[in-house]
Amino acid sequence: MITVNYDKVCKDYSDTDIANGKYELSQVYNQYLPLVRSVCKRYYLHLYDTDDLQQEALIVCHKSIQRYNLDHKISFGAFYKLNLERHFCSLLRHEKSQKRMVDSIATSYEQYLEETANEICDQTTSYFSGIEATFLSKIDFIDTLVQLSAFEKSVLHLHLTTHKNKNEIATELNVKIEKIYCTFYQIKKKLRNKFGD
């Protein structure tokens, strides 16, 4: 592997000039552009293209110039390279943490269906007591509905969706109130038979 001394490449500004603030940012950046390209090739970041990485490198160059001190006995090229590598490592860590966050937020379709079913059951449990509440918390709600007659389904549907009482349901379905009471009794009986154990 060939190593390049980046301090010798197109040295327009000395370390002393940079430390004393006698520089132009664009020229210092262009002076170390081969270093930037070399470091950029080693890091693959999904969220950044080449232009984005070079812009990040320009920002790091500006910060490195502001923090550079001759007393640390390190050349500016080495100091800039170290800061650039650290910054790209931080970008990589940030990108990976975003991926983990997305993975933790993502849910399967089955889990979504289960949560939706639980929400529906939670909304309807306030209308029932005892064993019916246990039934409504289960996902096989649809299986039990298959066992109900068409009239029982319509009574249950009106009760759950429109929140009507027994008298209002009887009026809407044009039946006697006694039939509605019997229907509720039959629904509860079927629920108890299915979930009583």
TrEMBL record:
GO terms for molecular function: DNA binding; sigma factor activity. The keyword Transcription regulation applies. Transmembrane segments: none annotated. SUPFAM superfamilies: Sigma2 domain of RNA polymerase sigma factors, Sigma3 and sigma4 domains of RNA polymerase sigma factors. It holds the Pfam family Sigma70_r2. Residues 29-92 form the RNA polymerase sigma-70 region domain. The keyword Transcription regulation applies. InterPro entries: RNA_pol_sigma-70_dom, RNA_pol_sigma70_r2, RNA_pol_sigma_r2, RNA_pol_sigma_r3/r4-like. Keywords: DNA-binding, Sigma factor, Transcription, Transcription regulation. One of its GO terms (biological process) is DNA-templated transcription initiation. Signal peptide: none annotated. This is RNA polymerase sigma-70 region 2 domain-containing protein. It comes from Ligilactobacillus aviarius.
